Amino acid sequence: MRLHALDLAIIAAYFVGTTLLGMWLGRGQRTTSEYFVSGRNLPWWAIALSIVATETSTVTFISVPGYAYMKDANGEGGDLTFLQLACGYLIGRLIISVLFIPLYFRGELLTAYQVLAHRFGERARRAASGLFLLTRSLADGFRLFATAIVLAAVTGWSDPTSILLIGGATIFYTYVGGQRAVIWTDVMQFGVYMVGALAALDVLLARLPGGWEAAWAMAEAQGKWRVFDFTWDLTRSYTFWSGIIGGAFLTMATHGTDQLIVQRYLASRTARQATAALLVSALIVLLQFFLFLLLGVLLFVFYAHFPPSVPFTKSDRIFPYFIVHELPMGLVGLVIAAIFAAAMSTLSSSLNSSAAAVVTDFYRPLRGEGFSEAHYLRVARRLTLGWGIVQISVALVARALSQRVVDEVLAIAAFTNGAILGVFFLGTLAGRVGESAALVGMVSGLLVMLYIRFFTAIAWPWFVVIGSATTVITGLASQTLREIAIRRVELTRIERSRAHR
Known about the structure:
This protein has 501 residues and is mainly alpha-helical. It has helices spanning 5-25, 32-37, 44-55, 58-69, 83-99, 101-104, 114-119, 122-155, 159-207, 211-221, 240-256, 259-266, 271-305, 318-326, 331-367, 373-398, 403-410, 412-429, 435-455, 463-500. The protein has 20 helices and no strands. Helix 11 (240-256) crosses helix 18.
C-alpha cells in the first residue's frame, strides 16, 4: 500500500510530537527518583490513563475486534464474552487496592521487589526482579515484532524498518524523559488510539446498509451480543469462571506485583490517589474493550454485506484489512498512528521499569551508596538504551521464528506471573514463612507451570491461579518441614544434654 502524503504527514506529526514532548518533560531531572517515579507528584487521572495505555498493546488494538468478528479453532469468540475477563480485572484491582498498594507506600520505594527484600531478603528480591527482567524483555521484544507485522500489512514497509522506527523513537523519548515522559506520552497515546478507534467506528456506521438498527438486528440473529458463558471447562479461555477467577488473579499479578504497573503507583502522591488511579483504570478498560469488541461486531456486519475478495482465515488480519481498503486518506494515517501509540505506550513503560529494576534491585545494593545521584541517573539512562537494544534484537530474531513459537514465548509472562504473585502472597499473608521456603515455592510454581503450559490443555487464564497456588502451598509446606526438622534437632540436642548429666 502506498500511503498518501496526508497520511504520512499525520504519522510524522505523531512521531515528532511524541519526541518533543519527551524532551521537554525530561528537562531538569537530577535524581533516580525523578527519573523512575517522577518525584512522586503526578495527578491520579494521568496515572489512570497511563495504566490503561500500558496494558493496551497493538495486539489488543487489532486482536480484540477480531475476537468479536469470528470464532477461533476452539469455537470461542464471535461475541462479547471477552468482557468477562474485564469483570475479573475489576475484582483483581479491588484486592490490589487493599492488599498491595499500602505496602508500596511504606517508605521511599522505587520497585515492587523492594517489598520482598524487606520481608524475606535479597535473594527473594533478586529472584523476582530477575524473573521480571527476563520475561519482560522477551515478551515485549516479541510484542514489538507483532506490531511490525501489523504495520507491514498496512504500510508495505519491511519488518526491520518498522521495528527500528518504533523501537528507536520509543528509546529516545524514554531515555531523555524518564517516567514523567512515559506517563504523559501515555496520556497522549491513549487519546490517539481512542480517536483512531472512534474514527473507524464512525466510518463503519456510515457505510452500513440500514444503519445501526439493521446492524443490531443482524448481529443479534448471529448471537453476537452474548456476554456471559457459564460453562465450567478449564480448557476454555473465555467463560464466566475463567474470566472472573482467572482474570482477577491475572490482574493481581500484572497490576499488583509487576514493576511495569507498580511503578505508576509509586509516582502518585499518596496511596489513596494510587488506588483511585487503579480503580478508575478498570472502568476505562471495560469501556475500551467494549468499543474494540463493538468494532469487531460491526466489521462482521459490514463484510456480510461487502464480502472481501478472499475470505478471512485469521482474526487479527480483519481490522488491518479494513484500515487499508476502506478508510479515507487522513484517517488511514490517524489509525496507523494509533497502532504506533498502542505499541509505544507499552514499550516505553517496559524500558523505564526494566532500568529501575536493575538500578534499584541489583546495581545500588551491590555497588553500595558511595556514588552521587548524577552517577545513578547516568546508569539509569544507559540501561534504558541497553534494554531498548535488547528488545529490538529480540524482535529482529523473532522474524526467523514461526508464529507458533512467537505465541509460545509471549505466553511465558502468563506462567511466570503466578510464581511472583505467590511469593507476594507468602510475604503478606503467611508471616512465618522464611526466605528459603519462599524460594522453594517460587521454583515449584515455575516448574508446575512449565508442565501445565506444554503438557496440558488448560486455558491460559488459569495459569496465574495455578502458579500462585502452587507457590503458596509448596512454600508453606517447605516452611513446615523446616520447622519440624529444627524441632527434631533441638529435641535431640536436649536429650543428649540430659543424658550427659
